Amino acid sequence: MPSASPPAASLPGLSPAPDFSFRDGQRAFLQKLAAAYERGEREHLGVFVPGYGKTLTALASFTVARAMGICDRLVVFVPRGNLRDQYADPEELAQMLQWIGAPPLPFTIADSDEVFLKNDDIPILIATYQYASGDSGNRALKRYCQQGDPLFVLDEIHHLPEAGAWSAAVDNLPYTALVGLSGTPLRSDGQPLFGVPHEVVTHDDGSESQFYDALHEVTLRDAHAEGGILKRVEAHVVDYTITMQEEDSGRQVEFTLAELKNELSGETDIDRYFARRHLRFHDVYLETLLGPAIARFQAKRASHRGTHGGAVRNHQMLVICMSNRHAADVLDFIERRYGWLSATRIGQDVPRPTREERLDAYRRGDVDVMVQVDMIGEGTDIKTISVIAKLDLVSARSKSLQQIFRGMRYFDAWDADANVCDVYTSGDLGLTETLDWMTREIQEGIALRQTEEGRTPPEKAASDGERSKWNVTSVSENDFETHRLEMERSGELRVRRQAYQQSDPSSLDVKAQEDALRKECTELATEVAYILQGRGQRVDIKDVHAAAKKRFGEGQAAMSLQRLRHKKRWLQRCKRMKRLV
Q1: Alpha helices in 304-388, H assignment, sequence order
Q2: pTM summary value
Q3: Is the dihedral of CA 265, 267, 268, 274 positive or negative?
Q4: Phi-psi bin for 14: left (phi > 0), alpha (psi -120 to 50), beta?
Q5: Please, are residues 191 and 56 in contact by the beta-carbon 8 Å criterion?
Q6: Which H or E run includes 439?
Q7: Same domain membership, residue 158 and residue 47
Q8: Residue 6 has pLDDT above 70, yes or no
Q9: CA distance linking residue 241 with residue 328, whole number of Å
Q10: How many structural domains are present in the chain?
Q11: Do 513 and 418 sit in the same domain of this protein?
Q12: Are residues 438 and 535 in the same domain?
């Protein structure tokens, strides 16, 4: 239960128990949600770091909407992997409803037809995206939603690009209001998300950028300012020098691993890519990266342990690999070099019963080290993970943050010194900016908390201008560079969704811009028509323009600049998806 805090302003339908109080960010979101509902706004985004209580926020959002007469039923959509740790415990859900003072509302899970179809009048339904995407599941959900006014809560909404199968399944269902929740509402592929409000910003040069418009955002800084939510992070980055020899000529070329991350084109760059992959199987690479990680892990286990639920819970380690084969080789390496540790792996190549058995053992703390390929994702709540070795090639910011978040949940059974997540990674991933930002946000949040508690935050070791950057150094004989960045005030993080350039950003001639956009739309419509014809459809450019006119309510000649930009974006989507959307 979240710790007590000053009483919240009255919120419709909520009467929290005497020993319960919403967290600051939860309370702020709910207050803004009630105000937005009063204004008639029905689609919203909440950004909350992992461990902040999205499940409770979802239930409280429905209680507010229900009390205001907006919605009479709740459908929470979650990835199947999130069910167990976040929504599948009926006692915990009942306890949350009691905490927030909601009436005793029945609820069930829709991951199969058995219970749901027999009881379609239940006011709270937890449905998986996988179930909603199936024909029978979608039909059942549609019938359920048509019987009332549902609030949709889309958990981990970064999984729902507008063009995705899950988005299409949800879009087929009627809803009255929608709340999207995520800790990282952005995608590495740049695709916009389903149902998420956004704002368009026009720059001085005429170009436009779209930003997610969150109703409320709880950042890393906010979470560490509150305390007791996330662990601190210490990142350790290693680099290598690789010698590559051409078979025919014998010519040798040296690259650092960091240099290999820049793959452009040509055979040499393909060779570099495969060199990066091959290196991660090499004992020298594994020893240099995993050796310090395991040493740190063992030091933690020797120094810190806590009692939780009557059992002693010690630190655990997570290793992230590129593929099932890579994970198998890494596990073999760990068993050869560090046989005294209990280690196992899970992956798609492991039968489901065995996979679940191993994951259960890891959850209980019976396994020290888990080697896996993206099988422990969002929603997995194993708070004793405190060392992460990132051996894959994923460098996208959103995905990397989700990976690191797996080891960041605060564990109350440990003291503050033990609540540190150590991340070990390679210099070729280009994570400098992400790790830099994470460290600064955490340090700033800690400083804010110390100030509020009346303590003087530690002085900076250097001024902002003198602060050292993340310098990745080559590793020789297992030397290792550890980075702990000093505090630096940074501006508020805004998540850029997608940028669109006008044809002539420097032009102030509106007519010229309209003509240029009409030309672009005509060219795009022609490309879309050719694509559809290549897929066996009898479609020409007139049909594409007719579909656009039906969608936007007017012909291209009558469209304003803004409407032409909307049409252009729609045609670009049609081209990407190879169909009229």
Answers
A1: 324-337, 352-364
A2: 0.70
A3: positive
A4: beta
A5: no
A6: helix 432-452
A7: yes
A8: no
A9: 25
A10: 3
A11: no
A12: no
In order of 79, 281, 532, 539, 569, the CA distances from 542 in angstroms are 40, 55, 13, 8, 18
Print the domain residue range for 344: 231-238+282-483
- CATH classification of the domain holding 308: 3.40.50.300
Q: Give the pair of three-digit tokens for residue 289.
A: 């990266």
| Within a domain: 8 | no
- Please name the amino acid found at residue 291: G
Q: What is the b/e burial string over 334-352, where b = at least 16 CB atoms within 10 angstroms of the residue's CB?
A: beeebeebebbbbbeebee
> Residue 312, class by beta-carbon neighbours within 10 Å (0-12 exposed, 13-18 middle, 19+ buried)?
exposed
CA angle (249, 255, 258) in 5-degree steps: 155
444 and 521 together in one domain:
no
Q: Are 318 and 389 in contact, with CB atoms under 8 Å apart?
A: yes
Q: Do 357 and 450 lie in a common domain? A: yes
Last residue of a domain, one of 183, 218, 253: 218
Is 468 exposed, middle or buried, given 0-12, 13-18 or 19+ CB atoms closer than 10 A?
A: exposed
Token pair, residue 283, equals: 């004992």
- Whether the pLDDT of residue 462 is over 50: the answer is no
Domain for residue 272, yes or no? no
Helix (H) or strand (E) holding 316: strand 316-320
In the structure encoding, which two tokens stand for residue 183, read together? 């800790």
Cα–Cα distance for residue pair 514/511, rounded to 1 Å: 5
Neighbour count for residue 54 (Cβ, 10 Å): 26
12 within some domain: no
* Positive or negative torsion for Cα 567, 573, 578, 581: negative
Higher-confidence position of 56 and 478: 56
By the 8 A CB rule, do 502 and 207 touch? Answer: yes
pLDDT at position 4: 40
Distance CA 67, CA 93 (A): 19
Q: Does one domain contain both 448 and 536? A: no
Tokens of 413: 């059974």
Lowest-confidence region among 248-262, 312-326, 561-575? 248-262
Same domain, 322 and 471: yes
Report how far residue 165's alpha carbon sits from residue 158's, in angstroms, rounded to the nearest whole number. 13
In a domain, 501, yes or no: no
User: Beta strand 177-182 with 150-155: parallel, antiparallel or unpaired?
Assistant: parallel
* Same-domain check for residues 290 and 397: yes
Residue 227 Rama label (left phi>0; alpha psi -120 to 50; beta): left
In single-letter form, the type of residue at position 475 comes to V
Token look-up 């996208």 returns 396
